[in-house]
Amino acid sequence: MKILVVGSGGREHAIAWRLAQDAERHDIFCAPGNAGTAAVATNVAIGAEDVQGIAKWARENSPDLVVVGPEAPLVKGLVDELLSLGIPTFGPVAAGARMEGSKRFAKEIMDAAGVPTGRAETFTDAAKAKSALPAFGLPVVVKADGLAAGKGVVVAETVEQAEAAIDDMLVGNKFGAAGAEVLVEEFLHGEECSILAMVDGRDAVLLPSSQDHKRVFDGDRGPNTGGMGAYSPAPVITADKLPMIKEKIIMPVVRELAKRGITYRGILYAGLMVNDEGSNPHGPLAKSGSTVNVVEFNARFGDPETEAVLPRLGGSFATALLHAATGCLADSDIVVKDDVAATVIVASGGYPGSYEKGRRIEGLGADASDSIVFHCGTKADAGGIVTSGGRVLSVTGTGATLREAVDRAYARIGGISFDGMFYRRDIAHRAFERG
Ligand code: AMP
Ligand code: GLY
């Protein structure tokens, strides 16, 4: 198959890499890609959000499949554009991508479909939002409705913090149009994890569970990031929960969207909060009464979850993506290996704040069977490969046990260096604490 992957991060490198592992030989392209995707695909110099540029390339090159990585082009209607050209595309149309692009819309769908989630109210008026706070107790969560590059969520421990967040968004316009509406939401106690469901418009197949590490420093301290590491599977998602997640969370959303004329195809990523009644010290159950609640939906593969999940998939990945994109996905399209995977993000000093670029990366080494270096923010220059982003590399180890996978990821990182490099040393600590 001729396949175009849209995007330039670790997620897109993992998608292109996994496609290159298929037994069939594919002709893989990546727009715009990075120094890592160049090893498994042909990079095409078109930005991921350049809808017309990508459509033009697709008209001229007639790919058998386009796989869209990031949310921004989904929300901008790239998939609608490609489908209008008759090109099979993995990713939801813009109306479906609103599950990520508008938190108010996602809540509306969840409420209509009876999906367990935190209770929330939406406001455009700061005074009204503030007067609603007492009913939510503390902590309370204040969220900008639209896309805010992962920064639009404030978990407030005090009323003052919640009021300041409301003012920032509704009065100070901190996130522009994305923050013109805010949600005040019930705080959910528990342990977070991710389920990526592959959806073909009418049915879904769950990919292996995973858990992300959002905070920048060890011990889950410091500011939130795009994700500092991940592992798969996540032990908090015990096997008995999977049917519930499919039947009470994923499928009701797919059906509710279909009822509204939206055929959702692609990944529906459910960020979940798990609170096992009585068996953990996390705090009270959500008002929904469910032990698993939705924190958020995303309309795409997670990053870095993808770098931990895809190395665990067997079979033909291209076929699974194409079947989802064309409405004929089957359970048998998803083959999960027994391996466990752990991914550690290697970042530039200063991230998620400001950081320097252009630092030469040493020791990337060659492919190994039990560790993979995915590139997130890298660029090739005359002398080699240099950093070009905050998250630079995503290093995945695989093994028979989580310990083995984690050790292999860290061993591989041990050989890599660049000025200012840092990474978390405690990836998967929650799973190890569970014993
Ligand atoms: P989101 O962008 O909605 O994923 O929110 C970012 C992060 O804020 C999540 O990954 C959670 O750690 C936290 N968060 C968001 N909503 C809630 C909630 N209702 N209860 C507890 N934590 C939350
Ligand atoms: N790792 C979190 C995300 O992809 O949204």
Please characterize this protein's 3D structure.
With 435 residues, this protein is α+β, with helices and mostly antiparallel strands. Helices cover 29% and strands 27% of the residues. Strands 12, 15, 20, 21, 24 and 25 form a 6-stranded antiparallel β-sheet that branches. Helix 5 (94-101) packs across helix 6 and helix 6 packs across helix 9 (242-259). The model has no long low-confidence stretch (mean pLDDT 95). Bound molecules: adenosine monophosphate and glycine. Residues 118, 141, 153, 155, 185-188, 192, 214, 271, 295-296 line the site of adenosine monophosphate (AMP).
Structural key phrases:
single chain, 435 residues, Rossmann fold, Dna Ligase, domain 1, D-amino Acid Aminotransferase, Chain A, domain 1, 4 domains, six-stranded antiparallel sheet, five-stranded parallel sheet, 13 helices, binds glycine
Described by strand count, sense and barrel closure, the largest sheet is: 6 strands, antiparallel
Radius of gyration: 21 Å
CATH class type of the largest domain: Alpha Beta
In CATH terms, the superfamily of the largest domain is ATP-grasp fold, B domain
Bound molecules: adenosine monophosphate, glycine
Low-confidence stretches: none
Strand content: 25-35%
Mean pLDDT, to the nearest integer, reads 95
Domains, number? 4
Q: N-to-C terminal Cα separation, in Å?
A: 44 Å
Overall helicity: 25-40%
- CATH fold type of the largest domain: D-amino Acid Aminotransferase, Chain A, domain 1
Q: Output the number of helix runs.
A: 13
Rough shape?
globular
Assigned CATH architecture of the largest domain: 2-Layer Sandwich
SS-based class:
alpha+beta
Q: How many β-strands, per DSSP?
A: 25
